[in-house]
Design brief:
single chain; 148 residues; alpha+beta; OB fold (Dihydrolipoamide Acetyltransferase, E2P); five-stranded mixed beta sheet; 4 helices
Amino acid sequence: MPLWGWLVVGVGLLCIEMFLIDAQFYLVFIGVAAVIVGLIGLGGIAMPLWLQWLLFALLSVIAMVAFRARVYAVVRGRTGHVDERVTQGDRVVVPARLMPDETCRVEYRGSTWTARNVDEVVIEAGKEAAIVRVEGLTLHLKALPPKV
């Protein structure tokens, strides 16, 4: 394939990933590999067609395996970590009876979270519970003391 063909394919794949579909950054690394092969040809290094395809395949696979997960997490901002000091002590309403060490789904700050009862007492349905810690995307809850 001529060098301009690699460049067109590479830029096309990058544009498709960025503007049309979310392929979870697979197309980005395939596109970058195609651009690199095109730039090598532009640099004056002549390669037979089979070597161009081999280099393209190797660059694509190596880039995806080595960098895709990290780059995707950084760009999309999905690290799965919530800073504890933001939520500790806040209260949530438990929609179903929650036995000790069991989990359920709760609404908190506009999102649905997994909540685990880390207390030794049952948290009744419709009652508030306090967030004592956050582990990943799980809220650890304790029952509030009864009002006197």
